[in-house]
Task: structure prediction
Amino acid sequence: MAAALTVPNLPASAPSDPIWEEAGWLPGKLSVEIPVSSFTLGDLLSLKVNSLVDARTKGDADVPITVNGACIGFAKFDMARDRVAVRLSELA
Result:
């Protein structure tokens, strides 16, 4: 299970190397992935609208954040009003 969005800029804490500054406009696909152990193909085939998947992940557990498939750090899930937010907890 992954949430994805387009990231138009590098994080504010990105390296200050001039090459990063020149490439800051490049789009990237940001993914936050929750590991789901013992999930089978049968489980996938039985998913329906409003199905729940037991991730067995603690609410405060760090989850990996990837950009274009490369891990850039870790985050925790948080609530922001009526939405689930991802709070960056560590940059790799």
User: Anything to note?
Assistant: Residues 1-10 have pLDDT under 50 and may be disordered. Strands lie at 2-7, 28-33, 63-67, 70-80, 83-91.
